């Protein structure tokens, strides 16, 4: 009896939570439609860390992440009317940021960049000098000497990205597929490869 | 124990974290991890990697949010200043088309009369009538296109200036 009650309560809580989330997304969509300046200020405050962290991981550079951070919010202002509130706001935000980075990578095609292309399909671009620490390694090592951080900077950006979205941002696989514009099966295979690569690097690091 | 069993265990360890596993698989995995040190070690490494990933922090640049808020507000102001111009352009376009439709029979007669009076070939004044209709639309398309070009070059300049 008590198990049934707790199960019902859990279900109700989950429904209530998803309703609240949906309401929040709808109100964000309405605010963006009206280009509400207070809402934009609030969203920048609220999502600053998550967006910046995501950008650092996909660009591999703190300075570049700062530029894209600003560009992303300008794009949110300009394209806010396209957000319909049916998906999580952060998923839409990350998708905008990702498109900006990809557009920039396409226009630059710099060899010193860690690319977001699939290493299985295309040759991933490598850091210019692998003996020197990459910009991402520098950013990460400033904060801590943890092995995980070093390992993250060594795996391809495309895997780093899915690991961040899944395990730091805690997005669902379906939401990730929306952000990355790829099928769910691709998201899963990248996650498995990413996890494998991260664990492999960690074990390698621990062994050495 | 065969390699297949270890492979299955490793697969389930990853699957549990990525997309979840069924209770039956969970029970099988737990039992296997109690017996197999190698797979238990694999599970520990995976958990360690994910724990490290979840707790990893990146320093946030000072003032980035406030700088961004300032830029966004500036851009918003700029967009609001441009809005009445764009609205006026749309209004002019709508009025022009409405007027064009209403006045079409009269303008046709005017062109016809002018053609007969001056002896201009029929095809010429008919083309003239067509232009009378298309020029405002062409003008509108050119204005919108130029505005888009200016916007994209502005954002490119902003990026380059950094």
Mind explaining what this structure looks like?
The complex is a heterodimer of chains A (208) and B (162). With 208 residues, chain A is mainly α. Chain A folds into 2 domains: 16-113, RNA polymerase sigma factor, region 2, helix turn helix motif (Rna Polymerase Sigma Factor, Chain: A, Orthogonal Bundle); 122-207, Arc Repressor Mutant, subunit A, CATH 1.10.10. Chain A contains 9 helices and no strands. Chain A is globular and about 50 Å long. The N and C termini of chain A lie far apart (55 Å). With 162 residues, chain B is mostly helical. Chain B has 2 domains: 3-55, no CATH class; 81-161, no CATH class. Chain B is 88% helix and 0% strand. Chain B contains 5 helices and no strands. Chain B has helices at 3-18, 23-35, 37-55, 64-118, 122-161. In chain B, helix 1 packs parallel to helix 3 and helix 2 packs across helix 3 (37-55). The two termini of chain B are 60 Å apart. In chain B, 10% of the residues are buried. Classes of the chains: A mainly alpha (208), B mainly alpha (162). The A-B interface holds A 35, 37, 40-41, 44-45, 48-49, 52-53, 56, 62, 66-67, 69-71, 73-74, 77-78, 139-140, 142-144, 146-149, 151-152, 163-164, 166-168, 173, 188, 191-192, 195-196, 198-199, 202-203 and B 14, 17-19, 42, 45-46, 48-50, 52-54, 56-61, 64-65, 67-69, 71-73, 75-76, 79-80, 155, 159, 162.
